[in-house]
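DM from R.C. (forwarded with permission)

"hey, sorry to bug you on a friday — could you get me a structure for this? deadline for the figure draft is monday and I only need the backbone to look sensible"
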Amino acid sequence: MVEDKRIKACPYCGSIEIVPKILFGGPLPGVDAKDGTYVCENCGREAVPLHFRSFDEWNAFFKDTGDASKSIDSTFARVPIVPINTAALFSLGKFDFPIGKTAKVVNIVWHNNSIVPRDDGVPFDTYWKAAFDKRYNASAILIMDLAGIAEAKPNFKVLKDLTKKKHEIWLDIGMRSIQDLFDSFAMEVSKAIASTITSTGLEIFNEVFELSDRCLPCIYFDEEIVWAKKRAGPSKLKEMAKKLKSIGYGEMAVVDLRRLGTANGVSRDFLAETLACDLDIYVGGGVIETDLEFLKEKGVAGAFIDPHTPVIRSLFKSEERLAPTDLRLLEKSKTIKGSGIPTD
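My reply, with the result:
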């Protein structure tokens, strides 16, 4: 058996002074009489521990979150990316079951010029509870409708059910027109995302700004800005920021597609390029919890955290396992035409 060398910590107080809880009466007490629960010798509570890859990661997480009862830092937005493969739910027809338990939050990567899912995911309700648990303290979540982004086919039946929540939700349905803006706010979300990856030029950013101050431009970047059509707009971040500022925007999000979904941490070179832009910036692409304090110190407005970091996964209440999908098999699977997104 391979030894688990990860750091285990109490999710309540952060102490690493925890011991396995032994369940008496099992056939082999002390061996198979464990349910994964630990007892904290510092605060006395029982819980499934958080797992960290290093002491630096453990220290940074609890330095950033502090006491579990503290309020959310309103000056820095912690926003987990929540990609939903809604295409898989189109064939289900009338919903006679809990959508929150059926819709899956998948991980995503940038592959063959498309954002594609790379695992089976976990139920939306499981992810929701973990993200807004006081131990994690997300400011909001960013729901990405992958069918809407890839093929302009957002699943409104699913989205309407998922957005009936009490916490703050930002939504990306793959905005391509003013109608998409209206559809987004019909679901009473806090922010609607207009991104370059679904835009054929700057016109959409002008149009939505005239109608709402709650639309956030999102710039996708892979060595240059990625548009729905090549050379549809500026290729450099600084130039794009100037264009948006001239329209009237005071903020924008920038996502590093090369790191999206890797949970490898934010690229320092990429960050330096974004900080040269004269707007409030939300940074995404590879971002993990240990980046947050650093990003806050650098003065960014917030972070789009990768969907399935080790920390958020350790908070899942149930033991769903993410089954990584070989990208070579993904290409051969049944997909929405031209999108790389499986439909079953």
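R.C.: lifesaver. DSSP finds twelve helices and 17 strands in the chain.
me: no worries. Confidence is low (pLDDT under 50) at residues 26-33, 67-72, 318-344.
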